[in-house]
Amino acid sequence: MGGQRKVLIVGGVAGGASCAARLRRLDEQARIIVFERGPHISYANCGLPYFVGEVITEEESLLLASPELFSRQFNIEVRVHHEVTRIDAAGREIAARDLHSGRSYSEPYTSLVLAPGASPVRPEIPGIDSPGVFSVRNVPDSRAIRGWISTRSPKRAVVVGASYLGLEMAENLARRGLSVTVVDLLAQVMPVLDPEMAEPVSRHLETHRVDLHLGDGMTAIERSGSGGLVLLTSAGARLPADMIVLSLGAKPEVQLARDAGIDIGRLGGIRVDDSMRTSTPGIWAVGDAVEVRNIVTGRPCLLPLAGPANRQGRVAADSICGRDTRFPGVAGTSVCGIFGLTVAATGASEKALIAAGIRQYQSVFLHPMQHASYYPGARRLHMKLVFSVPEGRILGAQAVGEEGADKRIDVIAMAVQRGATVFDLEEAELCYAPQYGTAKDPVNMAGMIAANVLRGDLLLARWQDLEGTAAVLVDVRDPHEFAAGHIDGAMNIPLGEFRQRLTSLPRHKEIWVHCAIGQRAYYAARILSQEGFTARLLPGGYETYWGYFP
Ligand code: FAD
Q: Is residue 309 within 6 Å of ligand 1 at its C-beta?
């Protein structure tokens, strides 16, 4: 090979294509060949639900690059419909099959990059292969769903799995006029969120007439007498459907790697170091197929998202070319739009921390407007910030709202990645004009509330401890708000009368205060603690109460 680098890449989408293009920018002399089993490279799988919903009308819009473009622009050879079937790591060559001609051949390499992605989970239950049951991974999958809709005119769809892909599919099927039921084994939608933050998402889905069937799993699919399908659940429900879309997550495609003796991690992904090197010399792996380190919990995780796959492709290319670039791990930053509602998260949720055995944290909730309330179009955001105690390191954040959720989470995502604290959020200098935010941005406010807690200016009560508490519950909203709905057993002392009515409160018990969203209760808590009471605030007020006790 005369010293010329020859890099073979398995998989031509997010991880593989970005690796190939970066390699060319670093090494003009290298021979680079991309093998792609499917018909396309560099397609926009993130756009597939919207192609089904006809928001994206032309299939060509999903194809971001072609083999011809890769050849012309990058001098990279792309072999579509070619599947890599075996790796001979000791001999440094792969075996591949041309899926059109059936011809098998071998190809030597100096470096090999595995970017085979992850395949949709399809549980082995009766009826799973029935016509009308779909997974969504690539352009042909979404074309098949569109074809089913246009030829069969289905009326009812069941989507199995309430994570971001399932809910995007639910929205797009509803957009095509189908009535949609979403089934999930978990008792909540959007598993990336804590349950109380998922509650507004459930309510929003229901206002868009999506039926939620939660806390119950699919056990079988049958054909109905009328030629349709029936989805059976473990609780005995029989849900009729004219089509079923599976969205049960994705499983790393590791067979090729496993057969070659490459280490596979405990979660089932290819094990890599921070240069994306596998355990086998000369072989790198990137994207949905690999396990990466979660920077908050420090544990390995699978994170099938396009951003990390692209960045890992670059890191692998750098490493192959001798550069000391490192992949720092993931915070798990994600966003999803559901019927006009944005759901965004970064870092760890509270339940993820508990699962990782991390207990030294606290959470605050806030429900600010996304921009100045006096400027037309103000909408409420629901936010949760989780931080370590006593250091105040930001561990995670979640936001749900019609506008502005993604922007706040993006800011906090950067803070999580830099190991910043709530005190940094307090001081963050962010852009402001009335149509964009508030002079004290929700990000600042989240930092201020958390910093108040850490400085001891504010004690928090936990909503989880509400039932059975011996504390006195005080609701400081105005009487008309209290009359419209309140927590059982709470007494109403409006903030305006608070100082005059302090004598009605016992000093030997804890006083737990709340209001609508937390601001007035904070003032009340400050009065109480300065008057010698032990006061705690129920964070996020009545708005958060609904999340915990829907
Ligand atoms: P893939 O994109 O899966 O590409 C792997 C390719 O390798 C495949 O085309 C496969 O055919 C090929 N391959 C596998 N084995 C072989 C072999 N042996 N020989 C040859 N070729 C092989 N992420 C986000 O961040 N935001 C989103 O909004 C979002 N939406 C999504 C919507 C959908 C419907 C889907 C399916 C995914 C979505 N994702 C989203 C996830 C994102 O697309 C993936 O994380 C990303 O594409 C992973 O890139 P990858 O290169 O690792 O794998």
A: yes
